[in-house]
Amino acid sequence: SSRPNTDASVSRFYPAQLQKNIADDSLTVILKNQISPYLILDIKKRILGFNQAFKKLVQFTKEDLDNLTYLDFIVNRYHSVINDFIENHLMVRGRTPVFGCEYISKAGKTIFVEQRLFLIGDNSGNFKQIYVSIRDITVKKRSETKIDKLRKEIRKEKQKLEETLNIDRKMSNIFDLNHLFDFIVDKSAKVLSAQRCSLMIYDEKNKELLIKGAKGLSAEAIKKTRVGIGSQICGMVAKKKRALLVQDIEQDKRFRQTNKKRYQSRSFMIAPIIAHNKILGVVNVSEKVVPKNQPEAFNEFDLKIFSSIINQAGVMIENANYSRQLEYLTTIDSLGDIFNHRFFMKYLNDEIRRIKRYKAPLSLIMIDIDDFMEYNELYGKLEGDQVIKSISKLLKSHVRETDVVCRYSGDEFVIILPETDITKAKLVALKLLSVLKNARGKRDIKVSIGVAGYGNGMKSSDMILKVYQALLNAKNQYRNKVYCLN
User: Fold this and answer.
1) pLDDT tens-digit profile of 155-185?
2) Model pTM greater than 0.70?
3) Burial (0-12, 13-18, 19+ Cβ within 10 Å), 150
4) Rounded to the nearest 5 degrees, what angle is found at the Cα of 393, between the Cα atoms of 389 and 396?
5) Which residue has the higher pLDDT, 31 or 409?
6) CA distances from 19 to 14, 50, 124, 326, 472 (A)
7) Environment class of 193 (CB within 10 Å of its CB; exposed 0-12, middle 13-18, buried 19+)
8) Which of 147, 148, 392, 429 might form a disulfide with 482, Cβ 3.0–4.6 angstroms?
9) How far apart are CA 189 and CA 403, in angstroms?
């Protein structure tokens, strides 16, 4: 056997203070001056002895320890580790390496220790006791944990700052309001680890905040929510024009009278969207979740990041508003040299009035450039403008003179086809799908197309909604395809 069983083994394996007194098989003299915690065990890991330092460490009484084994106060996941050390090190070499472990005190407190086990025997080579040398490293371990946590927080905050700078850059390339609203919501939620986010725009006519972009909210909530300036918490933020951080609404003295049922989580933030000291709306974020899917309160650093994003959003929304207002001033879209949204609405209303009188068919085609936001982010707005120009030119040159090509929004086009039923309109759409593959760009340009026909009693808004639904079906189900709604 490779087990130690001679005096030479004793001399080689055991600490000097144990070697001196092994012969009389007594540990009293050996251990009476020990100030570090220790245990004496028998081979079956039952407790034979200990000192006051050990009792103080684990807070068990002598009576408690008389009824416990070594493994009873050790965290379960270490049991197999200890058994392995005993079998493959202690019983083979007479000692184990130093290894970490966790004890549980009588009060249930976790104690981090480093320990080493030695076999104890007499001059006859009989090994019947185990000496456990213990070092309490709880303070060190917790300090290391705190330092590690701080390092992770610093890395996380650095990442948030980098993402915020990136958001500002990308936001400056978005001029379509709906796309801008969605972008602000998505990026705010991502950077702040929020499961819920809503962007509310101020309706000056009705003096209300309305949801224009949201994540984590139901369609019904988005549709029904109306908040007056000064009412509810978001209305108060809009009125005071100051960002708000609530870490625990149940403990926050400012909102004791507020209907807390509206907030599923205790912590949330609200920031006002302001441009030239004018309130444009507010953005709300709530339900912060950390990687282990546990809720966590927002902090002051989160508020600074949030405020930075929304301050830039205010500038971009105002720019997008100005851009849209200027575009509506004329009937021609300056970029694509085709009719604009304002002209489209007027012409469609005129056509609907005409076909109600003369009973002629009417169809709409709506075209959306697939992944156009990504294209702008990759190549810049100027390259995106070139794509808009190229598509506008192709559309004008491949439809009839009686058809009306309009730019509906940033990357959406619509074509009015007078005296054209849905079957013929679909053929036109399929032709355009093939033609638009030739659009000039830094990469292949693909589009989705929706087609809808006029139905009895429809208003212009009904027809637009119908063709827009067809377009959504094309994008959601197919991409780079044509979808028709009769």
Assistant:
1) 777 777 777 767 777 777 787 788 889 999 9
2) no
3) exposed
4) 140
5) 409
6) 6, 19, 13, 95, 84
7) middle
8) 429
9) 43
